[in-house]
Write the structure tokens for this entry.
Amino acid sequence: MVDSPATIDLRADFAASGLADDLAQLDHDLVGLAPVKRRIREITALLLVDRARATLGLKSQPPTLHMSFTGNPGTGKTTVALRMAGILHKLGYVRRGHLVSVTRDDLVGQYIGHTAPKTKDVLKKAMGGVLFIDEAYYLYRPENERDYGQEAIEILLQVMENQRDDLVVILAGYADRMDTFFSSNPGFRSRIAHHIDFPDYADGELVTIADSILTGLGYRLSAAARTALGDYVARRRGQPHFANARSIRNALDRARLRQAVRLFERDEGAVSAEALSTIEAEDIRASRVFDADKSL
């Protein structure tokens, strides 16, 4: 019989896991979200300590890691879920480390006998990884007596309890609606170990996100365009259907379209690499966001 070691070097274990690079990349790729990043580091520490306890022969039981991500659209919930799947895989908590992202339509059927096989098929695909259910509150529709969402909920609850060592479920959506959902379905609340709120991005953070998106596409903002984008963000935030980083990505897609038309329609045919790569202020300010008399 091999004796357990007397001590564990947690820092060495952390370095050997390769997670330092993952967490550093997370810091680099995700603008803001300080409380979210802090919770991810806490979960990482918890799992490292749990693994160390098992190595030293101490009583150890893998912690429940089902989660709730709350926040407005475009705040990085799906991205963090994907990164979390990779981290849990490196720590040995899940076998495969993949992410299966679904909505109500992927789980709930339209007729009797349809919901159970749909839900079980999704769960089968997600086993060994993370199941991300966006806008999870749509599973519960008490106003419709013939709705089959409750059947999906019961199957999910059973799997979350009995197979929590092989599947992590993350429920996501608006904070107020998720609160109502948990109040109506206490079985979910009792199985969720981590409730993580994703704050809206500040205006400056959204401009930084825009820079990152454009850099990835081989573009850049001119100085005047950056100022224009700051004005755009301030105006767009107060208008309907604002979705944080998602709205900024859409705005940049339209700015690139305007830049292409501007370059194509100018008098001279020759165009430089710099011109092809630069978004100018006029490409931003042509947005209807700057016209108070027009809707989006």
